[in-house]
Cation transporter (Mycolicibacterium diernhoferi), 300 residues
Amino acid sequence: MGAGHDHSHSHGSGDTRVSRMIIGAAVLGTFFVLELVTALMINSIALLADAGHMLTDLVAMFMGLTAVLLARRGSTSAARTYGWHRAEVFTAVANAALLLGVAGFILYEAFERLGNAPEVPGVPLIVVALAGLAANAVVMLLLRSDSERSLAVKGAYMEVVADTVGSIGVLIAGIVTVTTSWPYADVVVAVLVALWVLPRAFALARSALRILSESSPAHIDVDELRSALCAVPGVTEVHDLHVWTLVPGKDMATAHLTSAGDTARVLVDARAVLAARGLEHATVQVEPPGGVGECGVKNC
C-alpha cells in the first residue's frame, strides 16, 4: 500500500495585498463620509443608494482584510488543521447578504417616493458622482489583481465595481435633473442601481456557498478525472474520489486506486494526472486488489 500527498502552496504577495486593502479602505472611508453627508443634505435617494453601496464596500474591505490576515496567521489549534483559510469564504457570504440588504432597502425607499418625489438639486449630484468615480477607480486598480486569487478580495472588488456603476448613475441623474428638472431622475437611477447589484450579489453568494458545500470545482470534470486515473497503467479500480475547493485557487483532491503493479510508479503517474488539471494539492492512496473499505468502487 502506498500513499502520496503533494503539497504545493502558492503564496502571493500577502503584504502587498494587505497594504492595498488598507489604502483602499482609507479612500472609501473618506468618500463615504462626503457622500452620506451630501445625500442627507440634499435629500437624494440615488446618492444615498450610492453611499449605501460605499458602506458595503467599506465593510467588505474590512471583513476581507480580517479574513486575509487570519488566513496568513494560521492557527495553533490542533483541531483547526486548515487554519483560517475558510474565513474569506464566510466573508463573501456576509458581503453578499449585505449587498442584498442594501439593495432591498433602496428599492423600498424608491417606491415610497413614487408619486411624491422631492426636489433634488442636480449640481451636487454631479460633483459628488465625479468624486465617487475617481475614488472607485483608484480602489479598483488597487484590488483588481488580487480579486482573482481571493474570494474575500473579490467580494470587496465586486462591490466597488457595483458602486462605480452607481456613481455613473448618480452622474446621469444629476445631468438629467440640471437639464430637464425632471423630479424622478433620482428615483429611477436608485432603482436601476439596486436592480443591477442584485444578480451580482446572488452570484457571489452562489460561489461562496458552492465552496462551503464542498461541491466539485466548476472547472473540474470529475467523471473525466476518474477516467484519466483509470487509464494510469496498472490501475484497476478508482474509488473514494473527492474533489473540492478549500478557497479560490486552492483545489483539493483525494483518491484511492487499486493496483497490483508498481506502487511508486502508479503514484507518480496519478499525481501527474491530477496536477495536469490543477489539482496539485492531492492525497492519493494505492491499495492492493481486495483491499477493505472500498466505498463507491469504480472498475476501470
